[in-house]
Design a protein that fits this description.
9-stranded antiparallel beta sheet; 4 helices
């Protein structure tokens, strides 16, 4: 697998030529401590059957999806998450801290360009995708994945709706769903399970042996949206930042041994997708551009491509060290030179970053 590395003093990674996934993401905090929070599939170094989708062969870190979810409308493209997550990216420019690439082929006639960047003094990764031209409506999103071998405490920017997809993400005998499908969740700490009882969605991992998906619909009025995952055991907090008017939903993929078929084989565990999207779950291109309850509630579930114009999607994720006792994040606010994260006990940490990056898309 061909990789294109970039690095700065506090963040490094490599871009995969196939699928444009972010590999080997490492943050340096506390004057030298290295943290690698992102997930890589356990079969990454295995030889898989020839007909295995590229996205599964490469699965790691984060990648851009267009369409997000099942590709059920674009002729000749049936792979989940579309050409950007499976196809070939050609590098058009490279510096030590940044890389520019363009996708081989088009999506609904649009060219897709990618920029990935790390900057001195920041434990942050910047990504921007620009879709130029084309015609039609398209669900899009980022597919960031964390590894959670130790508990992660999740927190969220203001949201308006929480729900599960209309159908189970898995069914026996091939897999086991954790959450009851087609539910509106009023209390994230007491979501209904498919097998009875409730589960707390603000802590991950959830129970072993299950697969599930749920989604938050963002309040689109704040200047920026965010999700945080605090590791109290390892004294860090991971965060994602977005423009909620461009990516108005967050899909959470809870993958903890709930798929028994290849290449999953019950071994894909302690992985959580925190996926900033404009779409209706993962269920398909057609479902996202058609009538669905999220769009009906006023939250767009697709972007619109038009000839002669461009759609820009900008996204940031990063990591900050936390002081002793720092727990679940209560709020994330803009501060000079970055963001300030405050936990429920009013402990604070700071992350240097450039919020203006989100203004373009």
């Amino acid at each position: 697998m061909k990789l294109f590395p970039i690095s700065a003093d506090r963040a490094s990674l490599a871009l995969t030529e196939t699928g444009g996934h972010l590999s080997d993401v490492v943050f340096t905090v506390d004057g030298g401590r290295k943290v690698s929070p992102m997930h890589t599939a356990p079969w990454a170094n295995e030889t898989l059957p020839a007909d295995t989708w590229e996205i599964l062969r490469v699965l790691r870190g984060d990648f851009f999806c267009a369409p997000f979810g099942s590709s059920d409308l674009i002729p000749g493209e049936t792979r989940v998450h579309g050409l950007p997550a499976n196809g070939t990216w050609r590098v058009t420019g490279s510096k030590p801290g940044s890389i520019d690439a363009v996708l081989d082929g088009t999506v609904l006639g649009a060219t897709v360009a990618k920029r990935v960047e790390v900057r001195p003094g920041e434990s942050v990764v910047y990504q921007r995708h620009v879709m130029t031209g084309g015609s039609g409506r398209l669900p899009v999103g980022h597919h960031a994945m964390l590894r959670a071998e130790r508990p992660l405490l999740l927190s969220f920017a203001p949201w308006t709706m929480a729900l599960t997809p209309p159908d189970p993400v898995e069914t026996p005998p091939g897999g086991r769903p954790l959450l009851a499908n087609d539910q509106t969740i009023a209390d994230l700490t007491h979501a209904r399970r498919a097998d009875g009882g409730t589960v707390d969605l603000t802590v991950y991992p959830t129970p072993d042996g299950f697969e599930s998906i749920w989604m938050l619909v963002a309040d689109r009025t704040p200047a920026f949206g965010w999700v945080t995952a605090t590791s109290p055991d390892e004294n860090w907090v991971w965060f994602s930042l977005k423009n909620p008017r461009i990516l108005p939903q967050t899909l959470f993929w809870l993958s903890n041994g709930g798929r028994d078929y290849p290449p999953w084989n019950g071994r894909h565990k302690c992985a959580i997708g925190i996926e900033e999207i404009c779409g209706y779950f993962h269920v398909g291109h057609a479902a996202s551009i058609g009538e669905n309850p999220v769009a009906a509630a006023g939250s767009p579930t697709a972007v619109t491509l038009t000839p002669g114009s461009a759609v820009t999607v900008s996204y940031i994720f990063g990591l900050a060290a936390t002081p002793p006792g720092f727990g679940r994040v209560k709020d994330v606010v803009a501060a000079p030179g970055g963001i300030r994260l405050t936990d429920a006990g009013d402990r604070e940490t700071f992350a240097a970053c450039d919020l203006s990056f989100l203004a373009a898309g």
